[in-house]
Amino acid sequence: MFSLINIKSVAVIIYTTLLLGCVSSEQKATQNKYAQQDIAYVNGQFFNQSHGFESKAIIIREGIVIANVNALSDNFPGKVIDLQGKWGIPGLIDMHTHSFGNFIPNAKNDAPGTQGVSQRVLKAGVTGLVDLFGDETALVAVRNRQRNGEFVGADIYASLTCFTAPKGHCSEYGITTRTVSTVKQAQKQMAELAKQKPDVIKIVYQPSDDQPSISKAVFAQLVQESKKLGIKSIAHIKTWQDIRDAAKVGVSAVTHVPRGEIPKDIADLMANADVAIIPTLSVHNDFVNYLFDPSVLNSPLLTELVPDTLISAYRANDLIAKYQDRKTSFQQRNEVTLNAVKAMSDAGVKVLVGTDAGNWNTVQGYSVHREMKLLTDAGISPLQAIASATTHSADFLGIKSGFNEGEHANFVILNASPVDDILNTQQIALVVKSGNIVVQNDPSLSKL
To answer: How far is residue 379's CA from residue 151's CA, in Å, rounded to a whole number?
Structure first.
């Protein structure tokens, strides 16, 4: 007969064997799930629009996030990048730009072209841009080159052109645009544009403007045609009544904030109609800051993105003197605009970050960070501002980009918390585009 000690010994051996077998199975499962070419980013705080920043490990394969886990297993076979507690946000998206380059007051413009802008803005953590009017043929060509991998740059999305009235806004720049006066013309022009596969449709609707505008009937037809194509529409507007009309015809978003106090009905009207707002606060509000807030032009990120001539132009004494006596009125007007954006946000209107870069007091890439700062000046939280520049904009475009499983690995690693100070979005350590590190400002973040 077995003694009691022998029975216990046998039991221990069996239990240990089973335990080792389970561990071995778990190790094999992990090894089967991950591969040597996989890259894991660990010890980071990653943005989640529902929960804020979370400590996670992000695993990437061939440019796609394949796992978002609490911790990385010890036997992970791939490469590991220790983020040392830094903060990760999804790649930034500029929802309203004109990607020829940057306007410079009283000097030759900084005009690297769309490809150059697409490449340059990666330094600012911008991994996607939406051009809302340019040379249609040129934009189709450069977008194709970017999507075919002929150069590494921010993803290019575009309306390609804009729909406007003859001699209406967009027609004054010497670039061919699609002008329409009747419902039939709207149908015909939309069908022709559809062949070029625009990512969004831009429509200029401002009947109170000095320039001619399409009618409300033509506006409605253009929106209807865009819906048939499954393409979202963005309306350039000027007044609060324009927004009422836009909501009524079912536009997807409006760009710009009308001047003056927001009427009481507007915010709820937009929210109920699911009309998003692209405020473009940079182009509306930042002029006074470029002239009178030295920190704006002293940003190290700005100096990486533009020639000295642009910065010097806004520091010119004659330009500052010209607007010195209007500084207070500019600030008061800006406060009204910020209050309007806050009212929209509080009502549940989806706010999307767009800069209208290519105009006065805007800089491709940098103004996305300025836009987030201005949103927080309006009383919107840093987390909401980040979502407006990342996940909300991605959702609008129908793309998946960020940290969740199955999303494109486009993200930015920051040296400091953007929750503590939204200006910390400018403290960029790494930019990852399609799973590849395309900007590395912190050499200590090396692969282990």
So the answer is: 39
